[in-house]
TrEMBL record:
<feature type="domain" description="VOC">
    <location>
        <begin position="1"/>
        <end position="126"/>
    </location>
</feature>
<dbReference type="InterPro" id="IPR029068">
    <property type="entry name" value="Glyas_Bleomycin-R_OHBP_Dase"/>
</dbReference>
<dbReference type="InterPro" id="IPR053863">
    <property type="entry name" value="Glyoxy/Ble-like_N"/>
</dbReference>
<dbReference type="InterPro" id="IPR037523">
    <property type="entry name" value="VOC_core"/>
</dbReference>
<protein>
    <submittedName>
        <fullName>Glyoxalase</fullName>
    </submittedName>
</protein>
<dbReference type="Pfam" id="PF22677">
    <property type="entry name" value="Ble-like_N"/>
</dbReference>
Length: 145
């Protein structure tokens, strides 16, 4: 199985740990210390939230300010539209922001959430039938129903 580790910088590690645990994530204590926190999204998806100083030991590149520059759009699926709304609302309640309106395509529903450091995540739900058949076939069936 392939695991995904997303490394993101933070200005305040303790704030980040509190923020991501408020979203329902756990921290893996084996990989959490004064420089980093291993945020567990699932058995296969992890965020390594790193202090900027520690993050800079892995790259010679300058930091892009995530508040003003987009480098990647991460999207994490949820089990329902309600789960999408619930996690975004938890993030906003703990210092995040939810820019824009929800994106509702009928077969897929998504919302963006920005953490206190400016790192963005999209949470989305896709109808399982649409995922299996493809969005065009699913929407055609819905229109006939």
């Amino acid at each position: 199985m392939t695991h995904i580790f997303v490394n993101i910088p933070t200005n305040d590690l303790e704030r980040s740990k509190a923020y991501y645990t408020a979203l329902g994530c756990e921290l893996n204590p084996l990989f959490t210390d004064d420089n980093a926190a291993c945020v567990v999204w699932s058995d296969d998806i992890f965020f390594m939230v790193l202090t900027k100083e520690y993050f800079s030991t892995f790259t010679d590149k300058e930091f892009a300010d995530p508040r003003t520059h987009a480098q990647v759009l991460l999207s994490i699926s949820r089990d329902s539209r309600e789960d999408v709304d619930r996690i975004v609302e938890a993030g906003v309640a703990h210092g995040g922001t939810a820019p824009g309106e929800p994106q509702d395509y009928g077969f897929m529903y998504g919302r963006d959430l920005i953490d206190p450091d400016g790192n963005g995540i999209q949470f989305m739900y896709m109808d399982p039938e649409a995922a299996a058949k493809g969005p065009d076939a699913y929407m055609a069936e819905q229109a006939q129903a």
